[in-house]
């Protein structure tokens, strides 16, 4: 049994991603969407927390949202897997429930 | 009720700055009519929804905090409040309003609806649901 978490807020102005990281369970997935994709930047104030949690939780980002915001591909954390809208749908079906961190 | 699903309403916003908290409470009251296994979670700024002595006279909006005390009549009796979220905000359980429900299986004894849980317990509660609705 696992949960797909979605985070749509920038971690630099909102605690949603950190709270999600502190409440998810091993085997869960965390998908960064909309302004949530800023959480995939390496070398940021939040990246250590993401990398640490990536030990037992899988991180994804919605590629279109990252490209729309001009996030440099070379600065995205290797622990975060890009997915498209089709991948988003797959993730929803692969987990038992979805939880939005609004 | 064997086919009742477990619904969790997750509240992470303070009560009056945005409409999330009031909308959550409205949806909970509507959903209560469907006789599911409903729980509410209060974490992060959501714990501010339950402070006692809220008075909105000065801001011209409805004080909806007394409505939480009506949830017991709709068989919504599990309000999980995260201990770490309270502590991070300088609050403790005595700063929250008292919310009770009457247990018909125990001669209508009044029992507390608010249950203080740790962050780890809250994670377990979230992982134990069929449906999670976030506000």
What does this protein structure show overall?
The complex is a heterodimer of chains A (102) and B (135). With 102 residues, chain A is of the alpha/beta class. Chain A has a single domain, classed as Hypothetical Protein Ychn, Chain: A. Chain A contains four helices and five strands, in the order βαβαβαβαβ. Chain A has a five-stranded parallel beta sheet with strand order 4-3-2-1-5. The two termini of chain A are 22 Å apart. Chain B has one domain (6-134): Hypothetical Protein Ychn, Chain: A. Chain B has helices spanning 20-31, 83-88, 119-127; strands spanning 6-11, 37-42, 79-82, 100-103, 109-112, 114-117, 131-134. In chain B, β4 and β5 form a beta hairpin. The mean pLDDT of chain B is 95. The chains are: A alpha/beta (102), B alpha/beta (135).
Can you summarize this structure?
The complex is a heterodimer of chains A (102) and B (135). With 102 residues, chain A is α/β, with parallel strands linked by helices.
Give me the secondary-structure topology.
The complex is a heterodimer of chains A (102) and B (135).
Chain A: E1 3-7, H1 16-23, E2 29-32, H2 47-53, E3 58-62, H3 63-68, E4 80-83, H4 85-94, E5 97-101
Parallel strand pairs in A: 1-2, 1-5, 2-3, 3-4
Chain B: E1 6-11, H1 20-31, E2 37-42, E3 79-82, H2 83-88, E4 100-103, E5 109-112, E6 114-117, H3 119-127, E7 131-134
Parallel strand pairs in B: 1-2, 1-7, 2-3, 3-6
Antiparallel strand pairs in B: 4-5
């Amino acid at each position: 049994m696992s949960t797909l978490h979605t985070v749509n807020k920038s971690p630099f102005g909102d605690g949603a991603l950190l709270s999600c990281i502190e409440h998810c369970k091993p085997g869960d997935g965390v998908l960064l969407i909309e302004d949530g994709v800023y959480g995939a930047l390496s070398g940021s104030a939040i990246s250590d927390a993401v990398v640490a949690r990536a030990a037992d939780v899988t991180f994804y980002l919605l590629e279109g949202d990252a490209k729309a915001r001009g996030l440099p591909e070379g600065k995205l954390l290797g622990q975060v897997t890009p997915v498209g809208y089709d991948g988003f749908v797959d993730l929803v079906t692969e987990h038992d429930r979805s939880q939005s961190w609004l | 009720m064997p086919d009742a699903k477990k619904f969790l309403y997750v509240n992470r916003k303070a009560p009056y700055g945005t409409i999330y908290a009031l909308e959550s409470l409205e949806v909970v009251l509507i959903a209560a009519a469907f006789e599911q296994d409903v729980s509410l979670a209060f974490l992060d700024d959501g714990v501010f929804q339950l402070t006692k002595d809220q008075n909105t006279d000065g801001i011209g909006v409805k004080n909806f905090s007394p409505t939480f005390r009506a949830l017991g009549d709709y068989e919504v009796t599990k309000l999980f409040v995260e201990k770490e979220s309270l502590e991070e905000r300088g609050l403790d359980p005595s700063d929250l309003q008292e919310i009770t429900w009457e247990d018909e299986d125990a001669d209508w004894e009044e029992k507390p609806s608010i249950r203080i849980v740790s962050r780890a317990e809250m994670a377990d509660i979230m992982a134990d649901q069929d449906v999670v609705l976030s506000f």
